[in-house]
Recover the amino acids of this structure.
């Protein structure tokens, strides 16, 4: 437990950040970007 | 099954799962399902016809480069989560582009994995992270600099889309040529040097590297058993000395050092050494 304390604290922080992101509808923003072909990514500018 | 084969198997399965939209490779249409609201742990372009998840670096840049700045709570949370649990084991086991480079290095060719400027070149990835992924996208709206000018995974996706879709093929221009040359450089270098993109350029590897020392999945070296023979450092293709720095930011947890240790002094896992 003591060995993994920093990692556990980081995981709790991560969960809080993910929850905050979900409350702000950020997964929808990620989805919105990801379902369209990203022209820059594939090199079309 | 030995460690190398097991890792290769995990890498292959992870690549297939992250690119499970197989029909996309033939139709040239990208997946539009809800699973794309979740970022995958490794570098896997969301414009790859097979991708069923989102690229964390692309998503991070899309938040930072928006017209209205949004703090990327969600993407940052996912990155911290993956980092805190696995650290750079993500690079060694789950990243599709890392897997591709592992396969490239298996091709019999002239190999030169240790050279003088190697340690200096490694700082480039931090520059790429801070400049191309964070600072420039925040400064110039709507431009994901890393994805646009560097990411070879995106170029591969472009190639696959172009192969299946004539509209994409006809739209290829100078930017694609630049990215294609970069991709070729990474591929040719990858035949000679082990994982050049991961070592020198990948911003995702740079992020996960910060977690290596604290991640739940990490390495320990038993000083009572270690005889400082240097076998582990010699075996490491990421040029790390695991006896001195078992949780180096460069270690991708491939486990090659563990197999080479004659005293079994190295241990990699989630628990304290058994």
């Amino acid at each position: 437990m003591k060995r993994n304390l920093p990692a556990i604290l980081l995981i709790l922080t991560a969960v809080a950040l993910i929850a905050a992101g979900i409350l702000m509808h950020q997964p929808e923003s990620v989805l919105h970007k990801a379902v369209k072909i990203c022209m820059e990514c594939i090199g079309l500018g | 099954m030995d460690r190398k084969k097991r890792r290769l198997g995990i890498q292959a399965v992870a690549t297939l799962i992250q690119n499970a939209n197989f029909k996309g490779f033939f139709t040239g249409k990208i997946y539009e399902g809800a699973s794309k609201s979740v970022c995958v742990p490794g570098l896997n372009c969301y414009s790859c016809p097979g991708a069923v998840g989102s690229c964390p670096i692309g998503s991070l840049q899309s938040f930072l480069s928006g017209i209205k700045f949004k703090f990327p709570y969600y993407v940052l949370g996912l990155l911290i989560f993956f980092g805190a649990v696995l650290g750079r084991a993500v690079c060694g086991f789950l990243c599709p582009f890392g897997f591709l480079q592992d396969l490239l290095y298996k091709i019999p060719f002239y190999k030169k994995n240790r050279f003088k400027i190697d340690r200096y070149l490694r700082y480039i990835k931090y520059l790429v992270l801070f400049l191309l992924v964070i600072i420039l996208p925040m400064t110039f709206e709507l431009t994901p600099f890393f994805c646009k000018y560097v990411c070879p995974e995106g170029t591969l996706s472009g190639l696959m889309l172009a192969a299946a879709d004539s509209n994409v093929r006809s739209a290829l221009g100078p930017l694609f040529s630049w990215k294609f040359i970069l991709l070729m450089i990474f591929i040719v270098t990858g035949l000679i040097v082990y994982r050049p993109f991961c070592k020198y350029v990948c911003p995702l590897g740079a992020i996960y590297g910060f977690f290596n020392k604290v991640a739940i999945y990490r390495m320990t070296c038993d000083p009572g058993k270690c005889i400082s023979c240097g076998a582990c450092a010699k075996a490491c293709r990421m040029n790390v000395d695991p006896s001195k720095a078992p949780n180096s930011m460069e270690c991708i947890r491939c486990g090659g050092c563990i197999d080479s240790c004659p005293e079994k002094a190295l241990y990699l896992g989630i628990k304290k050494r058994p």
Summary: Chain A has a mean pLDDT of 93. The longest helix of chain A spans residues 5-23. DSSP finds three helices and no strands in chain A. Residues 14 and 38 of chain A are 27 Å apart (CA to CA).
